[in-house]
Automatic annotation (TrEMBL), chains A, B, C, D:
Membership in a protein family: Belongs to the Gfo/Idh/MocA family.
Matches recorded under SUPFAM superfamilies: Glyceraldehyde-3-phosphate dehydrogenase-like, C-terminal domain, NAD(P)-binding Rossmann-fold domains
Catalytic class of the enzyme: oxidoreductase
Parts of the chain that traverse the membrane: none
GO molecular function annotation: inositol 2-dehydrogenase (NAD+) activity; nucleotide binding
Enzyme Commission number(s) of this protein: 1.1.1.18
HAMAP family, sorted: IolG
Protein name per its UniProtKB record: Inositol 2-dehydrogenase
Organism of origin: Actinoplanes italicus
Residue ranges of every copy of the Gfo/Idh/MocA-like oxidoreductase N-terminal domain listed in the record: 21-141
Amino acid sequence: MRFLAEVAQAGAATGRHVVKRIGIIGTGIMGADHARLLTDAVSGACVGGVFDPDAERAGGVAARSGGARVFADPYALIGDDGIDAVLIASSDATHEEYVLACVAAGKPVLCEKPLAPTTEGCARILEAEAAHGSRLVTVGFMRRFDPGYTDLKAVLDGGEVGIPLMIHHVHRNPAAVPGIPGSALITNSAVHELDITRWLFGEEITEVAVHTPRPSGRAGGTRDPQLLILTTESGVLADVEIFVNARYGYEVRCELVAEEGTVTLDAPPPTSLRRGGLHARELPADWRPRFAEAYRLELQDWIDGTGRGATAWDGFAATYVAQACVAALESGERHVVGMPSIPRLYRG
Amino acid sequence: MRFLAEVAQAGAATGRHVVKRIGIIGTGIMGADHARLLTDAVSGACVGGVFDPDAERAGGVAARSGGARVFADPYALIGDDGIDAVLIASSDATHEEYVLACVAAGKPVLCEKPLAPTTEGCARILEAEAAHGSRLVTVGFMRRFDPGYTDLKAVLDGGEVGIPLMIHHVHRNPAAVPGIPGSALITNSAVHELDITRWLFGEEITEVAVHTPRPSGRAGGTRDPQLLILTTESGVLADVEIFVNARYGYEVRCELVAEEGTVTLDAPPPTSLRRGGLHARELPADWRPRFAEAYRLELQDWIDGTGRGATAWDGFAATYVAQACVAALESGERHVVGMPSIPRLYRG
Amino acid sequence: MRFLAEVAQAGAATGRHVVKRIGIIGTGIMGADHARLLTDAVSGACVGGVFDPDAERAGGVAARSGGARVFADPYALIGDDGIDAVLIASSDATHEEYVLACVAAGKPVLCEKPLAPTTEGCARILEAEAAHGSRLVTVGFMRRFDPGYTDLKAVLDGGEVGIPLMIHHVHRNPAAVPGIPGSALITNSAVHELDITRWLFGEEITEVAVHTPRPSGRAGGTRDPQLLILTTESGVLADVEIFVNARYGYEVRCELVAEEGTVTLDAPPPTSLRRGGLHARELPADWRPRFAEAYRLELQDWIDGTGRGATAWDGFAATYVAQACVAALESGERHVVGMPSIPRLYRG
Amino acid sequence: MRFLAEVAQAGAATGRHVVKRIGIIGTGIMGADHARLLTDAVSGACVGGVFDPDAERAGGVAARSGGARVFADPYALIGDDGIDAVLIASSDATHEEYVLACVAAGKPVLCEKPLAPTTEGCARILEAEAAHGSRLVTVGFMRRFDPGYTDLKAVLDGGEVGIPLMIHHVHRNPAAVPGIPGSALITNSAVHELDITRWLFGEEITEVAVHTPRPSGRAGGTRDPQLLILTTESGVLADVEIFVNARYGYEVRCELVAEEGTVTLDAPPPTSLRRGGLHARELPADWRPRFAEAYRLELQDWIDGTGRGATAWDGFAATYVAQACVAALESGERHVVGMPSIPRLYRG
């Protein structure tokens, strides 16, 4: 999936270094972070252009990205000859239309999750990509590039602990907007675990259930926390504690339980403090320091075009399973997922 | 210290992306690793040329670096207009002459430690740089960029644990060449702790002593392990266990002891295994996985020209203190270091 | 250096030291361990008599217990004037009759779990104790005395983490008899978590569900592992991974999730090893080293008569909830527990 | 639920249970703790009598020890027929005379460390015990019974890590009386590490040195912390960080470095907390919770008369090495210890 046929030439002497010019749509927290990484920490990339409804914000990011061009129209950016590929970090509702425009323009696109908020929207992208005839879309499930998760998968795939049976996930944020619907915990947060579970075991989730304790008094009425129970095709049982008002910090952990042993991912920071009666390691306040390396590696991989990122099908499947979980949350019953079969473009 | 006046233009549309063309002298393990990082993982750099006495080895690295040019003469590489800066990863004894050539050519140079094996050699580089009038030399003490060490320093500098009093270092390699002189443990290995101690506290080491237990039966006669005792200008006491035949793996740790608490750097990997009666984290077999991120950040910082790396003076001082430690090892007595005063070019 | 030739008679010199003479019924692994603790590590107790269907085994334990008397009939032991209290460590099916005999004799009795295998059996003991008019029965849920669990409860009760919302339990044994029924995982093993959950939150479990992955190939057909989901009166959600063929070792852990933070019990051993590429802590092969201190403290507390141990009602409730879990396992549905109301004798 | 109205006389029914009546001299913090353990947590012991210059304090401890007799004269206690053995927890300066009186009375005695503050005092006890002809004296180096240290020694003696080369000790207290002499850190605190080092390797310390950083501003002029360097007969190198104003808590740790691996003793508590941005384990405020189990096991071992405790010779040797360390601290030079040869009574 090396996606750039023609690239900018850089370096007169070597004549061989190529730099992809990335157009960024959406320059909020995530878009600005990506612009910084593409400019400062990724090989073979530069920010070629940016668009944001807030032109001032776009201008600031452009200035900090080596003087990238500011576009007034996202479709003009997508279509510009000086833009080799597009990164979408705009609001969720706009993802579908921008991704479709990129596919129509034949340009590689990295879209932040979700690919689209609805399974119908995701399906339209699958159809467009099928019509195009090759994969152009990558979905920003960055955890697939986290050294902790890739280490976990390497241990599993290496047979070091035998056949997998269960996985316990914990996913906590310190605070969320009070009173958000309980479904948002699934579609915004636990969707990462849905993707990781599919990726880790290389198979679909077939059945889901959701259990909930009394909600935290800090949640403003949201059904928070929740415990999702997922079953995969081969019978692996995954549970996911999602808790978005956990107060104490941001934390993502899991333990894979297999026939001969278990693997735990907890990613402790490199230092610990002894102070005030405690021996402690610090926990981050949000997800960005925890997954900073994953974002960098995700972008580098996308620029390199090696195609290890989540496909449009993965984006569709994550949204599909999330919807099943929302239904299970609302009904209180186990739900069979009933995933459609994978299109030919995404097989093998 | 942004060192490139003229840079290659990359990206027609932006007109702003610059790529520094790096010449690499020495394409053994370290040089090849650096070439890979510059090609695949650093922003704004490419490998412009390589030299190695083993032309076949040089050719392989050049091919894996996007088709870099292979030079038959290191001085031709240094002088070539298509080379913006030079990275020296050749044998220790050759460092001095190549660094001097770079300074003569007015080109930025990153030299793997040691800057030179002798204090006299280091001093000649200081003189050359003084004559040149600005800093061109960076020494590859990569630990200064390790996220663990920078985190440790941030905690210290942030006043979280108060005034520092002691630091305990542990530095272990699984195996060394049997029968190497005991001094090699200091000049090759513990020299990293000498540099880190100076960097962490921002002051010189004034007195040293070395204690040794009976040597390991695995060391082939080498005085291994050793315990170095260092005192800094302000009275911080540092001890360094250096053990190059520790068998079980590679490990670098330290604990900083201060008036209100302590900070420990141990850098655990992100995952742990439960298997065969043990709950375990894996230790690496050598220093490269442990300091992979440090090397990448060191190179990115050097390419960015922000000047956070070790200077020629730091390279001189590390060699100077190492020599005092060797004298203390041989005499069994405490040695006063007697460091010369810092030249004007490296102050402030 | 055994220094006393002639020994003092307890109470003789001081007139104040009392020693309870304990009769032990069942001298298998658990009974023999208890005999050893009562003889060697508990204050104010001695083994006064033992009974076992295997008279030779009983004789061996008696000999190692300072020459305790061997009874040929368990009811004779219970009724003997030289026996102050009775410890029952015989096979599960015999618990009920021996406990009833102790109550009839008015003697304190510590019965290993389960109090009785059926809720009907447990109910008969409740009736007998009610008729007697005061509590004589303690059930051997030793985890209530484990320093880890009591520490966890102290943190919770001290308000350090706020109102509890969830608890995740992990309970693993290395191997079980192949092909045992899946219900045995609940009634023999997870019953400890059922008791601990009730004890920790001071309330009943009202609803249960059981999820199962594909079974481990090591389980010989047993549905192993299982994931129990429990809901308490106030809405705390507890999940229990029970896995009796986990291979790698014995392990009991939990994490309590509350509104302001979490508490994890993992009880690491005091030492760790670095060897062969690993930094590891050892895990025990079975539950006895893990809970050795809990057993000692449980016995000391029972001898002291302070009544902190599990009551007959706790024994009844644990069996009652376990039966609900077995029903949930078999039906695949959530089950409402429908616990009877607590008899007056056990209130307050 | 104290269930026995009438209690059995020990030995009456079984004729075999013996209870040693212990006389305690000194009922301060340590003496009161020992009285509690002997009464509540040790098998085969009771407190037969107590003496303290503060009669009220003695009376309180006696009352909490089952009504032990209060003696007005320590020598009367030692000589009383109702006292089988004596525990000395009085002020350091009085140890020698009480121990000598016990030896003269032919009674077993457990003396808190130090056996005597001076080597001369210790030597007089050795002479008295030699004259008596058998060992009566045990010195309260309780760490020899700590499960962490015994585990460490078992790993070493089991050959799991090969031949020992070094050991790094850390010993920290939160605060000490400001301005105490630097020698007190050695004789009061680090003396535990001196004893443990001798016990662990089964050999004498032959050479010592002391390094000191600038003192902590919290130490009121005391030379605190210090780094002791010890060499044993076989050439093991031990370093001891002793820091009595470490502020953050009480902590004792060590890492044994051997030819094939290392063993670390850090004794983490069974639970950890996630709260306020930290994942933390609590550290105790003083040594008593850390060594509670060691004290209990030490007392039980002493009551059992199995003789695993430190002998009078160990008490002498610890004081002897401590004096050499004090000399090294004062001179700033390495000191050869020059230990006398071990008397026949303590060999083998």
